[in-house]
Description:
7% of the residues lie in helices and 53% in strands. By secondary structure, it is mostly beta strands.
Amino acid sequence: MSRNAVIILIGTSLATLTCSKGTEVAPTADPGDLGGMSYIAVNLDGKLKKIEFSDTVLSSGDSAIVYRETGIDCDWDLYIVFARNPWQMVYILYDTADTSSGEIFWDGAHVTGESTIETDQHHDIDRDVDDFSVQAWGIPAAFIGLPFDEEDWFVDFDLITPDLAVYGFRTDYVGTEGIGTSSKWFNCHKLVVDGRGLYSFAPDIHIFYRVDEPHIPIQCWVEDRGVVFEYFADSL
């Protein structure tokens, strides 16, 4: 193959990767009345945790949502504050026993915070990120404020990993799908999450949100791991 042909082939591949079906949208949808919603979810290891939503108010006076995961038969505590409009994490505090713990603050598109992994690996973050960004532990709830009533859309965002590295990701809305959990069947909106770029190393992530409002997360599936989050039962 000639040098010019190789250049054309690479250029075509890059153009294909940078074009996406649908329209890019902003996370500006009203997530609805989530205050007081609670249920039980199960993780990859079959451990149960209670999921709770409550209303709160930011220092700016704007309304916000608290998302909380509390372990029932495991050491797990995850506390996230989401600004309602635009929908965005503004604070996260997490402690996943011997796996990871940390605290992160958002000030617009600037993020600061720290994380410890397996008790001895300490990491810090102090940097600008995309206007919409997500910390990895909060992925199941991260997209509740997206416009599920629209079709063929995507959102580009920065994913902050447990070790506080930042990578560009994309979420595509691919329609609705029925999901059967161990105890109940749901009609869900389906999102597919993957890394952006020619050399994407990220596993596929499929997230399912209940079609009925409010659009609570029902299931999160990660390639090579399986279901890491799934509705289990109504709240105890």
